[in-house]
Design goal:
alpha/beta, 17 strands, six-stranded mixed beta sheet
Length: about 500
Amino acid sequence: MSTVAYTPADEIPKIHTRARQAYRSGKAKSVEFRKQQIAQVGYMLKDNEERFVQAAKQDLGRPEIETVLIDLSAVYIDVKLFYDNVEKWTKSRRVGFNLNFAPMSPRVKAEPKGVVLLIGPYNAPVFLLMSPLVGAIAGGNAVVLKPSEHSPATAALITELVPKYLDPDLVHVINGGVPETAAILELPWDHRSTRVGRIVAQAAGKHLTPLTLEACVCPEYVLVPRDFQDTFVAAVHEVYKSFYPDGPKNSDSLSRMVSEAHAARIKKLLDETKGTILFGGDVDILERYVGPTLVKDVKPDDALMSEEIFGPVLLVVPVNDLDEALEIIRSRDKPLAVYTFSPDSTFLAKVFDNTESGAVLANEVFIHLGVPGLPAGGVGASGYGYYTGKEMFDQFTHLRVSLNNPSWYVIVLEPQVVPLRALMSESPLVRVDKIGFRFRFPPYKKENLKQLRALSPALPPRPKGKSGPAQNGQRWATWLAFILAGAVSFMLTGYGRDFVKGYPT
């Protein structure tokens, strides 16, 4: 196994401080700078693709094609998407039109959250760290990366390459195990993304830190009709033999567990199962090997159903009908994904409409993670927030609202707080203070309340069969007065006078 040098505990707060100072410098505000850094993430991976393949082979025994497909290609998709769209996504936008507030030009703009902490998992150590990094950079944040200590070769490579390709003030790497991670979690962050959900959520609560948390999308159990179970497992066995004709242990197409401890955990679960192991089940802890395993006749309360497996074990749970299958799904934590297989559109619709999950796919598994534009995220215990796509940009920004009330509109809304004598002296026949609307400041009068109610938006049509007082023309009269007051105030301010002077006669 490779090793990676852990970051000294006393250096961690200093790194956090440097990242905070770099963020406050405003360097990451520039959209051009963000685009340059996003492109650099892509080239960091592309230029060193073979090294990342070899690192994954050391960490996980992962075949080259799986690393390129799972870890690298998915990041390239996000790099292209964010590079092409970050300029559009960072522009301020108008909100829906409302006559009461339209003169104030209310707008919303995506602003960075600040200093972001990204804690990567070991099962996709590049994709699940670099893809959120792209989103965080696009959002204009400073970033601290914490690669998984269980994938040390990949962590060491990331630690080496990040300062060579990315701004060393704004993107930092911290390595370590439990003590270092605990030290990281004691610091205030503006956003975190991690797999160690409950631990991090508890630590984040101290600083009111927003989180993005996700579980995993790998199929773990299959719900099949009871009378179809034997047919199903026989078909799976045939596919298994075609995948590994010479046996899986010597195959170069099968990854290993990330550590001996993880292999031992799978062995313990297999030892405790009440189901029937049809093939596989062999575990070599020293080699971190778990053979692809199929277990049938598994009940919902089986040991193998008690937690995420994170290994090459598939469980077959027989059910009497679709309703029982749906009830089993609904009785458990909401999953990151539900996969259903059938040519029957009615069957598929029933599964789609009666389950809750981060994603639901028909006749496919986890391919949605590679579809540009589709966000990936969980619900409930399977996670919250999103990664990939525009939604990941939203995770790493907050919506800052802005409003600019012009002086002529202030006169309309609150004439008593505006010195009108000079304006009125130029137009002595117009009493703006009588036309204006008083809403917020004393002295309060019933007349003001009537005006406020009249300017409120109309309700939708009353439901049939429900009676109420008839509407009258008061609303329209108030709106006409409101528009007249706005026109008069506009003309009495510099805006209106300049407009009239410049109008050709």
